[in-house]
């Protein structure tokens, strides 16, 4: 799952990107409108200069060759002027407009003003065109004229493009600085969470028993609840261990006394009693293991237990018990593979599997273990007769045995299954590469 810092940074980057885009569009629109308004006012000033320079003669309006705006006298300068009569026909144009196809507006009434962007007839050039209607009343009969000033829009677009590039650069730099500042603020703000994670890791490794640091009010409730939970679990585990120990001790002695008393008797009744005492011992052992399995939660805050070390101790002990078989045990266990839980549970699971393997094997046993993607896998296989597929599920039930003639109570695999499931794992019974049974445990790491 994505980390909190990554989520916040990505969310802030998305919001900041949208904000910068909208801001740049708004600023560009405002600058464009301001620039167009400035262009309009400047073109209006050119019209007023033309009106001041024009004089009425019998042939109509005439303008001097030398105009106040020098660009109007230079061909192709980008600034053009025309005067239209009441019918919309040009009666004068500036020297700069010679050979230039200026889009002409409709004739305007006196005092009417129109500013627009128009495209030339060739479809390649755009012009900013301002028209102003005038009633010229210096002669005996007033005449209506339309003064038109046009400017090439390429210069205007170039200015807007330069502003857009400059704006993008500055806003991009500001966005980058804001993201860097946000990452630094997040790093500082999430420091307490990193400290909590470090203390929890120390608890997992066994270096600490509780969270001890001082934290902000928002995290203090979490750390307090974690400490209370850890204390409660330790107290509950102590009570459970003491109760189980007391129960085992109190039951073993009476059962041993009764078995010893019956050893001297040789009668059908004594045989029946011995059988029932053996059954009682089996039931007591199973119920003790069941209580321990069902009462033990997934101990993710327990110190890690190396699987190889436990397997070596169990193999050495069982090899002494079964020294007459000369069993060769191969341990193919990753040194980094460890078990997160109660050490006694690991001894119980692996011990039952190895005891069955020693009991049924010919001469070879192989134990393998590895951790991968949060799962600890432990496999025990032998070269014995194996377990038929139709009996694999049945043998995981309480009291089920593959061979009634072989000594045992039939609860070993059941205890392993219940302990494994208590930790959220599963057990599989398969045919192994050595020819016998292969029991595979998968436990969350």
Characterize the structure shown.
The chain is α+β, with helices and mostly antiparallel strands and 445 residues long. The protein has three domains: 6-159, Beta-Lactamase, CATH 3.30.450; 236-295; 304-444, 2-Layer Sandwich (Heat Shock Protein 90), CATH 3.30.565.10. Helices cover 50% and strands 20% of the residues. It is built from nine helices and 14 strands. The chain has helices spanning 4-53, 153-189, 191-205, 217-262, 268-295, 307-321, 343-360, 389-392, 412-422; strands spanning 55-57, 60-62, 79-84, 90-93, 113-119, 126-136, 143-152, 304-306, 328-333, 338-340, 364-372, 375-382, 426-431, 437-444. The strands form four sheets. The protein has a five-stranded antiparallel sheet with strand order 4-3-7-6-5. Strands 9-11-12-14-13 form a five-stranded mixed sheet, covered by helices on one side. The protein has a two-stranded antiparallel sheet with strand order 1-2. Helix 7 packs antiparallel against helix 9 (412-422). One of its GO terms (molecular function) is phosphorelay sensor kinase activity. InterPro entries: HAMP_dom, HATPase_C_sf, HATPase_dom, His_kinase_dom, HisK_dim/P_dom, HisK_dim/P_sf, PhoQ/CarS-like_HATPase, Sig_transdc_His_kin-like_C. One of its GO terms (cellular component) is plasma membrane. It is found in: Membrane.
């Amino acid at each position: 799952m994505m980390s909190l810092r990554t989520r916040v940074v990505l969310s802030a980057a998305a919001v900041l990107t949208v904000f910068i885009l909208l801001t740049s569009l708004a600023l560009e629109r405002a600058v464009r409108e301001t620039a167009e308004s400035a262009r309009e006012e400047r073109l209006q000033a050119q019209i007023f200069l033309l009106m001041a320079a024009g004089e009425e003669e019998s042939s109509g309006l005439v303008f001097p060759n030398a105009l106040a705006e020098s660009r109007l006298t230079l061909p192709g300068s980008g600034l053009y002027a025309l005067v239209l009569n009441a019918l919309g026909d040009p009666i004068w144009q500036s020297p700069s407009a010679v050979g230039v196809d200026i889009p002409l507006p409709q004739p305007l009434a006196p005092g009417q003003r129109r500013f627009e962007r128009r495209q030339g007839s060739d479809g390649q050039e755009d012009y900013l065109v301002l028209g102003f209607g005038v009633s010229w009343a210096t002669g005996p009969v007033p005449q209506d004229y339309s003064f038109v000033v046009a400017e090439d829009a390429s210069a205007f677009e170039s200015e807007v493009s330069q502003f857009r590039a400059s704006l993008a650069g500055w806003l991009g730099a500001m966005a980058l600085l804001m993201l860097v500042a946000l990452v630094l603020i997040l790093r500082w703000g999430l420091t307490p969470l990193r400290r909590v994670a470090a203390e929890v890791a120390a608890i997992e490794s066994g270096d600490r028993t509780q969270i001890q640091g001082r934290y902000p009010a928002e995290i203090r409730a979490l750390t307090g609840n974690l400490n209370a939970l850890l204390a409660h679990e330790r107290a509950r585990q102590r009570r459970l261990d003491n109760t189980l120990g007391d129960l085992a001790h109190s039951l073993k002695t009476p059962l041993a006394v009764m078995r010893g008393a019956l050893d001297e008797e040789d009668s059908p009744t004594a045989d029946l009693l011995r059988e029932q005492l053996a059954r009682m011992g089996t039931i007591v052992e199973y119920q003790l293991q069941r209580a321990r399995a069902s009462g033990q939660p997934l101990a993710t805050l327990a110190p890690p237990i190396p699987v190889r070390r436990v397997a070596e101790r169990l193999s050495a002990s069982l090899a002494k018990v079964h020294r007459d078989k000369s069993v060769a045990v191969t341990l193919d266990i990753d040194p980094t593979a460890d078990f997160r839980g109660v050490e006694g549970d690991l001894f119980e699971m692996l011990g039952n599997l190895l005891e069955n393997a020693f009991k049924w094997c010919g001469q070879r046993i192989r134990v393998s273990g590895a951790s991968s993607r949060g799962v600890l896998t432990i496999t025990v296989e032998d070269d014995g007769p194996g377990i038929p597929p139709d009996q694999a599920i049945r043998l995981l039930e309480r009291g089920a045995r593959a061979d009634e003639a072989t000594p045992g109570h039939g609860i070993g695999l059941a205890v392993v299954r219940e302990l494994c499931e208590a930790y959220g794992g599963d057990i599989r019974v398969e045919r192994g590469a050595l020819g016998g049974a292969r029991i595979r445990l998968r436990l969350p790491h």
